[in-house]
Design a protein that fits this description.
Blueprint (H helix, E strand, L loop, with lengths): L14 H30 L5 H15 L1 E6 L4 H6 L2 E3 L1 H10 L4 E5 L2 H10 L4 E3 L15 H10 L5 E4 L4 H5 L3 E3 L4 H7 L4 E5 L2 H8 L5 E4 L12 H10 L4 E4 L5 H6 L2 E2 L2 H10 L4 E5 L2 H10 L4 E4 L14 H10 L8 H19 L1 H7 L6
Parallel strand pairs: 1-2, 1-3, 3-4, 5-6, 5-7, 7-8, 9-10, 9-11, 11-12
Helix pairs in contact: 2-14, 4-5, 12-13, 15-16
Bound molecules: 1,3-dihydroxyacetonephosphate and iron/sulfur cluster.
Length: 364
């Protein structure tokens, strides 16, 4: 996904959303009290034998026939022992394709729910229940219902960063890799887009449909500033700058390329450029650096980490396997409804045959 066109960037907050945002911020303060210490611990923990824990995990994984999936943003020691590293959709697809009935999902809560929605017959373990996503928390079912009431009859495109209950009340899902294609496939000249405003505004550059975005954001990607890119260009005029579409429109305007996380991994491998700077979560920058040792891989601005992702420690993965916790449960009726927007997305982005292979139970 790339663009050179500028977009209109009007504030979209109305009174209702401001009220909702305030409630959300109160929730964050509470959440930070629980997640903050875990994050700091995970980053600074000393005196643990990582190798030994990794070996225990690998032994137990074999004994129990488990599959370990790691999101791109996990700590390096977790990525090292994973069977597969990828973005949220790639991981849900991997889980469905694998014969394993036990999945240890190292990522955040909405992603683990997504795995359960696609493969309800499997046991899905999330090593830390507190690992949520600030952006996904910015909309819930009652807020979505109010949004839909206000814009009656308009279809809802939900970004994959949403809870299963929110997906269940949306028309079609999208990821950052296919958002433009999915919105264009919707037969309506106006579309509600939740929860990421930046991604919604990015899609707006490519379609004449009017996008009405929810005012959510990612507190990792939204923190990159245009000055970070300007400074990087001064220091490294030969670097190509790649940003995630969850970045602000002002940052996107200054980038050379805009790619989803999966797109960034592919671009780094395939490009002839030998110096690339990324504006995304640092775990992914580290993965790209590891996989492309011959290239210079830089972070735009100061390295930024997702506290939710980084609250999962290698010991938590071991405990998850030992005690088979925390099991992700999604009510049956929500699973049935949440599959529909996911199936619609996959039919458009990957075709019907692919959907038949992945979803064992017919839902449409
Ligand atoms: P992916 O769907 O690319 O994994 O991204 C999710 C996310 O949280 C991006 O910040
Ligand atoms: Fe959510 Fe942003 Fe963390 Fe991704 S990086 S999980 S969008 S808070």
């Amino acid at each position: 996904m790339e663009s050179k066109e500028k977009t209109e960037n009007k504030p979209l907050l109305d009174e209702e959303q401001v009220k909702y945002a305030r409630e959300i911020f109160k929730g964050y303060a509470e959440k930070w009290k629980r997640i903050g210490p875990l994050f700091i611990k995970a980053k600074s923990e000393k005196g643990i034998d990582v190798k030994e824990i990794q070996n225990k995990i690998l032994r137990l994984k074999k004994e129990k026939g488990a599959l370990i999936l790691s999101h791109n943003y996990m700590l390096p020691e977790i990525q090292e022992i994973a069977d597969f590293i990828g973005d949220s959709l790639e991981l849900a697809i991997k889980a469905a394709e694998s014969p394993n009935d036990l999945i240890v999902f190292c990522g955040v809560h909405f992603m683990a729910e997504g795995v359960k929605v696609v493969s309800p017959e499997k046991i899905v373990l999330l090593p830390r229940l507190e690992a949520g996503c600030f952006m996904a928390d910015m909309i819930n079912i009652s807020a979505l219902r109010k949004f839909k009431e206000k814009y009656q009859g308009l279809p809802v495109v939900c970004y994959i960063n949403t809870d299963a209950a929110v997906k269940a009340e949306s028309d079609i899902c999208c990821t950052s890799a296919n958002a433009v294609q999915i919105v264009k496939s919707v037969n309506s000249d106006q579309v509600l887009f939740i929860p990421d405003r930046n991604l919604g505004l990015y899609v707006q550059r490519f379609t004449s449909q009017k996008i009405i975005p929810w005012d959510g954001w990612c507190n990792v990607h939204h923190r990159f500033r245009p000055e970070d890119i300007q400074k990087l260009r001064e220091q490294h005029p030969d670097a190509v700058v790649v940003v995630h579409p969850e970045c602000s429109p002002e940052v996107i305007d200054l980038a050379d390329h805009v790619f989803s996380t999966g797109g960034m991994v592919r671009f780094a491998k395939e490009t002839k450029h030998s110096k690339i700077a990324f504006a995304t979560e640092e775990g992914l920058v580290e993965r790209i650096r590891r996989e492309n040792p011959e290239k210079t891989i830089l972070s735009v601005g100061s390295p930024k980490t997702c506290v939710n992702m980084k609250s999962i420690r290698i010991q938590d993965v071991l405990t998850a396997l030992e005690e088979e916790k925390y099991k992700i449960d999604v009510p049956e009726d929500i699973i049935e409804k949440a599959r529909i927007p996911l199936i619609r997305m996959l039919e458009i982005s990957k075709g019907r045959d692919f959907v038949k292979q992945i979803f064992h139970r017919a839902a449409l």
